[in-house]
C-alpha cells in the first residue's frame, strides 16, 4: 500500500512539472512571435522613425545687462524693437528659400538705401545664377567641362567660371522689386542653420501684424522682439554723455570681431552674437552678456524642424553699476563745454579740456569728462565731441602741479629736509639760458611751503641739482650732476604716486605717457623734470597722484565699476549684489607721514593763502587744497603749425575738504598761447561747487523723506 501511494505521488509531481514546462514553452513562443512581428512586420517603420529624427540644440541670445550709475540711474539700456526673423533648416534648398523671400518681400519693405548698399556684387551674381539657371548653365562650354572633369573641385571651379562670365549688363538687369527680394534672401542665407537670423529690424506695426498672420505659409519665418543699445543721456548736440568711455556693441550683422572670433567661439558664443567692442562694454563683456536660452530642435533627416523645446531658460545679462555719479558727470561736462568754448576765443590751438574726479580713499571714479572741438570734414562746421576717453589715452607736460612729488622726493632722498631754505633767484649755468621762476626777479630765500604756495621753479631746480650730486650753485658755472642717477631717482619716486606708470583703471587702452624710458640729452632737462616739463602724464595719473597725497600716502587703483547686480526685470529697483568692486591699494609711498602732511599743508596754502597761485578758486567754504600748473610744451596737436611751436598747458590737481578729503580732481587744458589764463581754476572751482551742492541737495532730500511709523 505504501509503495502504491509513493508511486501516485511521483506521477503527480511529474505531471505538474510537465505542465510548468508547457506554460514556459508557450510564453517563450509567444515572446518570440511578438519579437518576430516587431522586427519583420514593423521593423522598417520603426527604423525609418528613428532615422527620421535628429536632436539639435541651439543657443539664442537675450539682451545685455544694463549700465547704471552709482545711485541706480539708468545710463545704458536696451530699446526693444519689432523684428522679423528667419530660421534656416539644415538642408533647405536655395530655390525654396528664394520662394519664401519673394513672398516675404510682398509683405515687408526691405529697400532702404542701407539695405540696397549692403548688397555686394557677389550677392548679385549668386542671385542671378539662382534666377537664371538655364542661362547660367549655358555660360559653361563642353570644353570647360572636359578640361575640369577630373578635377576634385569640379563643381566649385565650374561655379567660379560661371560667376566670372556674368556680364555687368546682366547684373544691372534686376528690377527694384528683385533687389528687395535679394536684400531679404541674402539675410536668410547669411544665418546659421537652426539659428534665428534677423531679416528686418524696426519693422512697422503693420508689417509685424501681416507677417504674424501669414506664418503658416512662411516656413522658418517668425516675429520677435529685438533690442538696441541706447544711452539715456545726451547733450543738446546729441552727443552721448560719457559716450567715448561706455564704448560700442557690435550689431547682429557684424557679429563677433574678426580678430577675436576664435576666442569668443571657444567661450560658447555664436558667430553672429553681439559683443562689446570697446571700453566699458568690452571690459565687462562677461558681466553684460546674457545667459543664452537653449532650444532643442527635433528635425527630420532633411533638416526640417518637427518640434522645438526650451531646455534651459535664458536671462539677460547682469547689471553693471558704475562708480560714476551721472548727475555730477552732466554738470562737469556742461562746465567744461562752457569754459572751453569761452576760452577758445583767440586761442586757435586750444581744442580740448579734461576733468577727472575720484574718491581718494576708494579709487571710485565719480566723473570722467572731456570735450574736444573738431572740424567736420563733410559739413565744414566745428563740432564739440565727447572726449572723456582722453583722460586715459592722451598725455601732456603737466607743469608745476607735480611739484608736490618733487618736494617729497627731495625729503625721501635726503636732498632737502622739511623747512629747508633755498635762495630763489635767476640762475645761469655755463653755456645755457637763464632759468628762473615766474617771478622773474626771484622770491629770495624761501622754504618748501613757500615754494609750493608760490610755485617756485628755482626751489625745484636746486632740489634736482642736489639730487644729482651738485650741492652748490655757482653763477655761470657748470651744471655738474649725474643726470642718469637723478632722473632715475625722480622717476622711481614719482611712480609711487602713479606718475609715469599705469594707474590700473578697469578700462582697456590706458597710456602711461612719454619719456619714461629716456635719459635726458642735457643735464638741464633733469631740472625741467622737477617742474613737470619733461615727461608727460595723463589726466588720470594726475588725479591718482593728488589722491595719494590727499589720503596720506596710499596709491589707490582707480575703478569705474562699483558693483555687479543680478538683473531685475520685475521692478525698477536694482537686483541683489553679485560682486562688489572693493578698494585696492597698489602701494604705500616710501615716505614719512609727517612729510606727506607738510606737503598737504603746502597744498592748502596754494588755494587758501592770498599769495597762493590757486587763490583764484573762490569757494573757500569747501576747504579745497591743491596745486596749480603751467608748462611750456611743444605743440603736437591736429592743426597745421610751424615747426617747434611752443604753447602752454595749464593744469590743476586738488582735493576737498582738506581735513577729510572726499573728492580729488584733475583739470587739464593743453595748448594755449598764454600762461596768464586762469580757466583751470575756474573749472576746478565749479566742479567742487557742483559736487558739494549735489551732496547737500541729496542730504536735504533724504532728511525730508517721510519716516515710517512701525508702531
Automatic annotation (TrEMBL):
<feature type="domain" description="Penicillin-binding protein dimerisation">
    <location>
        <begin position="62"/>
        <end position="308"/>
    </location>
</feature>
<protein>
    <recommendedName>
        <fullName>serine-type D-Ala-D-Ala carboxypeptidase</fullName>
        <ecNumber>3.4.16.4</ecNumber>
    </recommendedName>
</protein>
<comment type="similarity">
    <text>Belongs to the transpeptidase family.</text>
</comment>
<dbReference type="InterPro" id="IPR012338">
    <property type="entry name" value="Beta-lactam/transpept-like"/>
</dbReference>
<dbReference type="InterPro" id="IPR036138">
    <property type="entry name" value="PBP_dimer_sf"/>
</dbReference>
<keyword id="KW-1003">Cell membrane</keyword>
<dbReference type="Pfam" id="PF03717">
    <property type="entry name" value="PBP_dimer"/>
</dbReference>
<comment type="pathway">
    <text>Cell wall biogenesis; peptidoglycan biosynthesis.</text>
</comment>
<keyword id="KW-0961">Cell wall biogenesis/degradation</keyword>
<keyword id="KW-0573">Peptidoglycan synthesis</keyword>
<feature type="domain" description="Penicillin-binding protein transpeptidase">
    <location>
        <begin position="354"/>
        <end position="688"/>
    </location>
</feature>
<dbReference type="InterPro" id="IPR001460">
    <property type="entry name" value="PCN-bd_Tpept"/>
</dbReference>
<keyword id="KW-1133">Transmembrane helix</keyword>
<dbReference type="Pfam" id="PF00905">
    <property type="entry name" value="Transpeptidase"/>
</dbReference>
<dbReference type="InterPro" id="IPR005311">
    <property type="entry name" value="PBP_dimer"/>
</dbReference>
<dbReference type="InterPro" id="IPR050515">
    <property type="entry name" value="Beta-lactam/transpept"/>
</dbReference>
<keyword id="KW-0812">Transmembrane</keyword>
<keyword id="KW-0133">Cell shape</keyword>
<feature type="transmembrane region" description="Helical">
    <location>
        <begin position="20"/>
        <end position="42"/>
    </location>
</feature>
<keyword id="KW-0472">Membrane</keyword>
